[in-house]
């Protein structure tokens, strides 16, 4: 107000929340997102059914998938979803844990704000609590041999447990671990595994039990001619990037033919040129050809006559993948093809009644394929999500060589030891650190709730076990007993737990420090809730 007249600075389409109102708005948004996925946490979590605007139905309990499918308007809720996306991109698992932790931290902060504790003090206490939690996590970390197949299978098993495809996880675990071990490389004592080198292909119509690891690749194509063999053993594969046909000239040109002899000579010259393409492939010793461009009919004829299995119009992505899997070279011109550029595989075949070509039995492949089979699209999608989670956690474990135990064991140890640490800090930060420690109770409580057990009873039992020094004690969600999770083989990558704690704490601290929200609405859009 100036001289009794209001001064209007913001436009009419700007909604503004200030102070406590803005903080409560962000807290409510974070809690809402957390509650949306909370019931999916753990091996006995429930599923969510998501229906898109086009009518596509997705049924899953994968936190990353659920949060990517739902549409949110609130900026605070979008930030929480970004936490899940970052977790999924960096680790591939633990998205639900991260989001549930954010919701719990915001709920505990709300109680402190009502006690007139400043959000900056809360955020500072949270950061101190996170630093201590990281130290505790390092203390709980177990180092393993990156190529310990037994331990890696346990890690994959933990990531896949609770999915609707759990009935086949026994066979999938080994497939996932073998796939990652096949493409993992060790250099200077450090293991690296590129997720792009494990391709996942889906085939509808078969049962889930028929999933297999292909030490090579699978291409959604068929051979160019029925006269070519359907299956080639001891395959020598040529990869050609250029078209195997007569190209059109860059400039307009006319050929005047005035006699039948000239026409015959022209056709003979064209046939001879095309025959040279097939002769170059055969001379190099190849019996399988993948061409990124088209293959002319005469070339197809000559190749089929010599028993060469040929595929045209192979996508560039598949060509590059084939080069990795076959340890072959992609040749730009067919004339440059040499025996050294060829890749080798035990078998190249076109599957019966399907436009799918399987290249298997490659020597020392740098890329492999997991071929999934299922009776419905829904099962295939869920199967793929489980395999992606499994491969991600196995890669993390091999690269870091570090794991922690599951079953809410880590969270229980953190909440107890961080609470003890808070007493040594003093001041108002002590209250914030204690609240931070209490936020971790949400994980064991949620696991118990989702498994049908009384959450308070199980939380008390867990605390008692950890008080006695049983740092690997966790909740067995099937029996309700407190057991040694390490002996039970419930383990997961340390990277997953570290990332979920860090990202949840940072997101909560960031949201708490917001005391003013100015949201510009597009024309015709309704005001933001709470504005």
Low-pLDDT residue spans: none
**Distance between the amino and carboxyl termini:** 21 Å
Annotation, overall tally of beta strands = 21
Assembly of the depicted chains: single chain
Assign the CATH topology of the largest domain. Answer: GROEL, domain 1
Instruction: Output the CATH homologous superfamily of the largest domain.
Output: GroEL-like equatorial domain
Q: What percentage of residues falls in helices of 4 or more residues?
A: 40-55%
Q: From the alpha-carbon coordinates, what is the Rg to the nearest angstrom?
A: 30 Å
Percentage of residues in strands: 15-25%
Into how many domains do the coordinates divide? Answer: 3
User: The biggest beta sheet, please?
Assistant: 7 strands, mixed
Question: What's the CATH class label of the largest domain?
Answer: Mainly Alpha
- How many helices? The count is 16
- The class by helix and strand makeup works out as alpha+beta
Mean pLDDT: 84
CATH architecture label of the largest domain: Orthogonal Bundle
What is the approximate shape? elongated
Plain-language structure description:
The protein is an alpha+beta fold. It folds into three domains: 14-143 and 404-512, GROEL, domain 1, CATH 1.10.560; 145-215 and 368-400, GROEL, domain 2 (2-Layer Sandwich), CATH 3.30.260; 218-249 and 257-364, GroEL. It has 16 helices and 21 strands. Strands 9, 10, 11, 12, 13, 14 and 15 form a seven-stranded mixed sheet that branches. The protein has a three-stranded antiparallel sheet with strand order 4-17-20, sandwiched between helices. Strands 7-16-8 form a three-stranded mixed sheet, with helices on one face. Strand 2 (48-51) and strand 3 form a beta hairpin. It is elongated and about 100 Å long. The mean pLDDT is 84.
């Amino acid at each position: 107000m100036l001289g009794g007249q209001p001064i209007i600075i913001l436009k009419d389409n700007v909604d503004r929340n200030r102070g406590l109102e803005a903080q409560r708005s962000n807290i409510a948004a974070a809690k809402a997102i957390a509650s949306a996925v909370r019931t999916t946490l753990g091996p006995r979590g429930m599923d969510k059914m998501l229906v898109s605007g086009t009518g596509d139905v997705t049924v899953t309990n994968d936190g990353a998938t659920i949060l990517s499918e739902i549409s949110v308007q609130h900026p605070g809720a979008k930030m929480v979803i970004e936490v899940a996306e970052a977790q999924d991109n960096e680790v591939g698992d633990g998205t639900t844990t991260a989001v549930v932790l954010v919701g719990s931290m915001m709920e505990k902060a709300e109680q402190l704000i009502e006690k007139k504790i400043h959000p900056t003090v809360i955020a500072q206490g949270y950061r101190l609590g996170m630093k201590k939690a990281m130290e505790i996590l390092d203390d709980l970390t177990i180092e393993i041999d990156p190529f310990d197949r037994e331990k890696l299978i346990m890690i994959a098993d933990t990531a896949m447990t609770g999915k609707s495809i759990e009935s086949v996880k026994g066979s999938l675990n080994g497939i996932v671990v073998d796939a990652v071990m096949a493409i993992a490389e060790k250099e200077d004592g450090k293991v690296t595994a590129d997720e792009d080198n494990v391709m996942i292909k889906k085939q509808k119509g078969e049962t889930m039990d028929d999933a297999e690891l292909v030490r090579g690749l699978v291409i959604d194509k068929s051979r160019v001619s029925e006269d070519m063999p359907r299956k080639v053993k001891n395959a020598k594969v040529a990869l050609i990037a250029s078209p195997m046909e007569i190209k059109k000239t860059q400039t307009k040109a006319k050929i005047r033919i005035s006699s039948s002899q000239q026409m015959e000579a022209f056709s003979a010259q064209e046939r001879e040129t095309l025959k040279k393409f097939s002769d170059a492939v055969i001379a190099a010793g190849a019996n399988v050809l993948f061409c990124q461009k088209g293959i002319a009919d005469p070339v197809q004829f000559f190749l089929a006559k010599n028993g060469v299995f040929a595929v045209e119009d192979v996508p560039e992505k598949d060509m590059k993948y084939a080069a990795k899997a076959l340890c072959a070279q992609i040749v730009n011109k067919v004339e440059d093809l040499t025996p050294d550029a060829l890749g080798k595989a035990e078998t190249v075949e076109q599957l019966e009644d399907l436009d799918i070509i399987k290249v298997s039995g490659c020597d020392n492949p740098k890329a492999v394929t997991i071929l999934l089979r299922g009776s419905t699209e829904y099962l295939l999608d869920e199967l793929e999500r489980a395999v992606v989670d499994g491969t991600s956690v196995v890669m993390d474990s091999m690269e870091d060589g570090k794991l922690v135990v599951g079953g809410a064991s880590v969270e229980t140890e953190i909440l107890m030891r961080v609470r003890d640490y808070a007493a040594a800090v003093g001041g108002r930060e002590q209250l914030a650190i204690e609240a931070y420690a209490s936020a971790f109770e949400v994980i064991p409580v949620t696991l118990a709730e989702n498994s049908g057990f009384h959450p308070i009873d199980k939380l008390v039992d867990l605390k008692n076990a950890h008080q006695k020094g049983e740092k690997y004690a966790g909740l067995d969600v099937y029996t309700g007993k407190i057991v040694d999770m390490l002996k039970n083989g419930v383990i997961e990558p340390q990277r997953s737990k570290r990332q979920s704690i860090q990202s949840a704490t940072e997101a909560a601290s960031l949201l708490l420090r917001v005391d003013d929200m100015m949201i510009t609405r597009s024309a015709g859009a309704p005001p933001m809730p709470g504005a």
